[in-house]
């Protein structure tokens, strides 16, 4: 039991350091680059914006500074943290009430529950590993490598003299700083990795709130009182996934209990739950947050028109690429389509800002790209291939490529309906009610473009490195879009009443 107490204590210490780092650093960037609405926001919302901007700006800057050594990276992180303190706490007073107490309890449950899931536990003469251990071996190893060698880091799996790792590692600059600062207090790389996932969960909630509030989906869906709090509904949906439990139980029943999937999503190429993504691949969630920081900074009416916000978007896009190349592929498609729409609307200034943000991201991330790009090519298979989305068991059922491809094409819409569950129904209900009003703002257009990009890329392309991470992670854009539409549809009463549609939506919500 002493081991468990020590692990949780070290994880809580790492979480405190990471919270100070990301909130303080994020507040300094949100203030300096004028993130829309940050200056006049209430205290809690300001903290959420700071969290998003911390994930959006710090990773690429920490990578650049760490090329001069880990001491330079740590110094930059501490300086940004200190500079952001006044910006974070400047503004109106904060009054604690009963609702805040409930949220504090829920936050504590997330922190302690997440830590309990991730750490190892004593079992008999040894340890029982968390079911997330395979991923956290990688997270901890990458954190340790950055802390030991700087950036670009040594390959943490095996050492080749003179060769550095170039895959996305920006997220681990954050966890590396935490392990460096807290090392004398017993905080190690794995504890910093655990803290990174917990903070990514808070960032996801902040992102969901900002996207919902700024996209105008409540107004488009006809919500009678858009000012009504939406926090508990957001939390419920973030803890919900598709109706994957149905095919999992069907496989078990048809096989006489011989086929059980390790995770419910593995019956198909998964659309991972928010909980799964946050705990297992927090770097992809952080990259999604960074992408939307850039889009919000450039979107009108709140964003755009200020060169400082263009700089913010450039930093956000650069950090996003270094945290997840798969999220970056989706974001690049979104930016290209959005640019075409801006040009068609003759919004020349906004088109220039978006172009400059993209060019600035390439310039800021140039040292990383210079390490990454030479590794492409060679005699190995391409990193991305063309292949229809679908589960591996279809290939076992249909022996020929033609029959297997046809089966994937025919089952794909049905499988998507299962994977999205209540979010598919919510999106349908939203667009049935909203119509063209659902495209009223720039951010609402970004959600539509992002959803389309997710389905096109995720349906026809796949990554070939170990798993189909491209097909899995790019779906996060469709997931944040359908989440937002479902939330507003539910607030407009689409799931109320006694009709078949409302009953189906409630069943999908319960099963998810």
Topology readout:
Blueprint: H1 2-32, H2 43-66, H3 70-89, H4 98-118, E1 121-123, E2 126-128, H5 133-149, H6 171-181, H7 189-215, H8 217-221, H9 231-238, H10 245-254, H11 274-280, H12 282-298, H13 307-323, H14 325-344, H15 348-364, H16 366-372, E3 384-386, H17 392-397, H18 401-420, H19 422-434, H20 442-460, E4 461-463, H21 469-473, H22 475-491, H23 500-511
Antiparallel strand pairs: 1-2, 3-4
Helix pairs in contact: 1-2, 1-3, 1-6, 1-7, 2-3, 2-6, 2-7, 2-12, 2-13, 3-6, 4-7, 5-6, 5-7, 6-7, 7-11, 7-12, 7-22, 11-12, 12-13, 12-14, 13-14, 13-15, 14-15, 14-20, 19-22, 20-22
Question: What do you see in this structure?
Answer:
This protein is an all-alpha fold and 512 residues long. It is 69% helix and 2% strand. The chain contains 23 helices and 4 strands. The strands form 2 sheets. A two-stranded antiparallel sheet has the order 1-2. A two-stranded antiparallel sheet has the order 3-4. Strand 1 and strand 2 form a beta hairpin. Helix 5 crosses helix 7. It is globular. The protein starts with a helix and ends with a helix. The relative contact order is 0.11. The mean pLDDT is 91.
